[in-house]
Design brief:
The structure is a homodimer of 449-residue chains. With 449 residues, the first copy, chain A, is α+β, with helices and mostly antiparallel strands. Chain A is built from 16 helices and 19 strands. At the A-B interface, strand 9, helix 7, strand 11, helix 10 and helix 15 of A face strand 9, helix 7, strand 11, helix 10 and helix 15 of B. The complex binds flavin-adenine dinucleotide (FAD) (2 copies). One flavin-adenine dinucleotide binds next to strand 3, helix 4 and strand 10 of chain A. Chains A, B: One of its GO terms (biological process) is lactate catabolic process.
Chain lengths: 449, 449
């Protein structure tokens, strides 16, 4: 592989961490693979030498997922970025794992198709599969889990398998596709993905609505979901996040108040109907009249602001660190969860703007971490408190960011020791020498470290 | 467990086979479990004695799934039929595995909710999970895979685990839920299920449309799907199946011609809009005007006829056996697949009415098996030919009925030896002594039997 495999210090440093988490783990080597065969050979070599292997997409994961905490080889997949096949009649495509979503969607636009999964960052689709990513559109289109038809995977010993296929459903054998989705590079390295696509809707409309209280905004979300409106996006930003976005993205016409951003997809008539129902629910809950963002440019500006929410939050305290939390609860518990988390933030005396894909019950805060001594500990304490609130309401400690290193310690609490033990049995079966992304996802057994 | 565990011959016989497949395998014992704890104790006992264990829902599976081909203990779950919890605000419920879908939907109706997965038979939800079932509504609502939030599972050694949870999505750990879905009782026994529910749509309308040729009917399906209409059901019946249904279900106003049955779900306006687009596509393809089935009674009669298609086909030749095939291809290949299969039926000189959930590319034939010598072989040869057509078009050997005993030999062809080997690794990890439904789903290794 010549220059595509390197010990260069700055390349290793770039691959030693993701976003957000402070965890650093320098790989000994970084290889930029270009084919499945190369990945297979690299993994086979690493396997023979008991060398840890970490897959690297775009490194936007937030829980220390990509840090090579035991050193070894990091395989960067960003050069595996070919779109191999698009089948417009079947609305599917086959791509390499390093393709990022913006590139795929640009490529597909002329064919009237799109891939709806939309984490804030311009992540690789392989990384999105590995973290079971979702994002703003998941309330309508599902997560990446629901949109993958099949995978090509390099196993821990270098063998290459294909899972799933091109058909929309199949009942023939274990669902290995779903087993690799969300496995965070600990069971195999995904090199190709067969993806479901969706038709770009005939009509799209966007709107925003502001509320005097978080409770009113959240109640609106709950009622919109219960009304069965097939809403494409429904995002909540608290007053603090709105303040950040107004400043960072130069949004006009907004007050510093809790806000909902809506998007409706469908036919002209369908979109109108959905929006009317949603607006009347919002008004009933004391929301202001909808501010419409009908032309694409205005709508893009709004969603760009939403996607930049993390950067906007960080810009509030440029010298601070940032730590993103990720809670999800059943929608009926959303008010209790959101208000509980807001109170916890106040108690902690920290600034932590809140933003969320609330149609699923999923929301984040960006805890701005004071640079002073003890700042990191205060942020972690708040994060634990937030997880605690979510779990106590029947939720999960991560709706979409995944486990990585950061959430490992909550897994037993969430799933129970026996369930985690079954996950360990699967891991041991597929990666017996434990070379794939060691120290991630699965918590250590008690008494082990 | 007293009388709930039995060696009674007729009970054992009832549990020795499912529908359709001729495979008989008598269990030595049948136990009617009433709680997860009982299942756990039974499995732990069987584990200690190396006794095979077969889970039994309602025994409607078609590929010899439930036959106790190595004897042992069959655990009948039909008495575990409690609906444990319904959360209307979150549109989910928790049920025991033996609940059948008609019972669940009757229970939910008053709350305006329903569980859309709808295999023809009134199967248990546990059995549906175990076979990754789908049915007429899957084109809109997904398969059972997409509608399960979490499971309680008894593992091969008797330990009990919970997978998933109540939230709509989560990124915390391996997707064990999906691993058990479709595992046909070979990895664990499902005792409880947390299910997503859906709101009964505000408006439902049904229609049928008849065509001069299969090609025209199939082309209509392809175009309806490509138009992105969120159709709830689109079922194809060939002229032979229509002949059977007209006779068996006393349908009036139909000719013996290829037909499509449609159902539209949505708001009043949405349903009207969907139906208009679908009708105009049908007319463009030479279909007759839609015959509307707007009142619920008429619609139910139609869908009852559709669900009775298997019995209607069998009634054409009461002395014959019956063997159901199950093919799925990418929708763009549907015409080629359907016409190829029709030609193969003619070549075989057999009667095999065709019916299918064609919106997914999935269709069945009911091969009527002549009672004479060699009849069974002719049916199997035709089945192999049909599988061959599906696989050669990028399809799967089973869209929804599963593998059981009958489809095992096609799995390597469909997935490749390496992929099957990874499935075997998972099986060996979770059921090391191989007591769970032995001889099913996974093909034997070459040279093994
Ligand atoms: C500002 C911001 C906003 C975000 N918003 C969202 C959001 O809304 N929703 C959401 O879900 N996430 C969000 N994220 C998190 C992140 O974007 C996702 O986790 C994303 O899926 C990671 O993709 P990646 O290519 O960057 O993966 P990486 O960070 O490179 O890797 C993530 C993990 O996957 C593994 N991996 C990567 N590629 C492969 C592969 N081909 N095969 C096997 N394993 C692999 C890695 O080893 C690692 O464990 C956000 C992140 C940021 C910085
Ligand atoms: C007329 C007719 C029409 C049909 N139409 C369809 C259709 O449209 N779509 C479709 O998908 N299927 C269809 N089927 C097939 C069948 O109804 C489904 O496979 C159904 O899901 C089987 O459920 P069951 O409760 O009868 O399972 P069973 O037949 O009792 O068992 C099936 C398999 O699952 C295992 N199993 C059962 N319960 C459990 C449990 N709780 N835990 C673990 N393993 C378990 C068994 O060991 C066995 O391997 C049809 C069958 C008939 C007879």
């Amino acid at each position: 592989m010549g220059e595509r495999i390197t010990v260069n210090a700055s390349v290793r440093e770039q691959h030693s961490h993701g976003e957000g988490s402070g965890l650093i783990g320098m790989p000994d080597l970084v290889a930029f693979a270009e084919t499945t065969e190369e990945v297979s050979k690299l993994v086979a070599l690493a396997h023979a030498r008991h060398l840890p292997v970490v897959a690297f997409g775009t490194g936007t994961s937030l829980e220390g997922h990509v840090s090579a905490i035991e050193g070894g080889l990091t395989i960067d997949l960003s050069r595996m970025d070919r779109i191999l096949e698009v089948n417009p009649e079947d609305m599917d495509c086959r791509i390499e794992a390093g393709v990022v979503r913006s590139k795929l969607n640009e490529y597909l636009r002329d064919q009237g198709l799109f891939m709806p999964i939309d984490p804030g960052a311009d992540a690789s689709i392989g990384g999105m599969c590995a973290t079971r990513a979702s994002g703003t559109n998941a309330v309508r289109y599902g997560t990446i889990r629901d949109n993958v038809l099949g995978l090509t995977v390099v196993m821990a010993d270098g063998r290459v398998i294909k899972t799933g296929g091109r058909v929309r459903k199949s009942a023939t054998g274990y669902d290995l596709t779903r087993l690799f989705i969300g496995s965070e590079g600990t069971l195999g390295i995904i090199t190709e993905i067969q993806l479901k696509l969706h038709g770009i809707p005939e009509a799209i409309s966007g709107a925003t609505c502001q509320f005097e209280s978080m409770a009113a905004a959240v109640q609106t979300v709950i009622e919109v979901m219960q009304a069965g409106i097939p809403i494409a996006r429904i995002e909540l930003l608290d007053e603090s996040q709105m303040e950040a976005c107004i400043a960072y993205s130069k949004l006009t016409g907004f007050e510093v108040l809790p806000s909902l951003f809506f998007e409706f997809h469908g036919t002209q008539a369908g979109v109108r109907e959905q929006a009317e129902v949603a607006e009347s629910i919002a008004l009933d809950n004391g929301g202001r009249a909808f501010a419409w963002a009908t032309d694409p440019e205005e709508r893009n500006k709004l969603w760009k602001a939403r996607h930049d929410a993390y950067w906007a939050a960080r810009a509030m305290r440029p010298t601070y660190g940032a730590f993103v939390t990720d809670t999800i609860v059943p929608v009926s518990k959303l008010t209790e969860a959101v208000l509980g988390v807001k109170a916890a933030i106040v108690d902690a005396g920290l600034l932590a703007p809140m933003v969320g894909h609330v149609g699923d019950g999923n929301f984040h805060t960006v805890i701005l971490v004071p640079p002073e001594d003890g700042g990191q500990e205060r942020a972690w304490t708040l994060d634990r408190k937030i997880v605690e609130i979510g779990l106590s309401l029947g939720g999960s400690c991560s709706g979409e960011h995944g486990v990585g290193r950061g959430k490992r310690d909550f897994l037993v609490r969430e799933h129970g020791e026996e369930t985690i033990e079954v996950m360990r049995m699967v891991k041991a079966a597929l990666d017996p020498s434990g070379i794939l992304n060691p120290g991630k996802l699965l918590p250590d057994r008690v008494g082990q470290n």
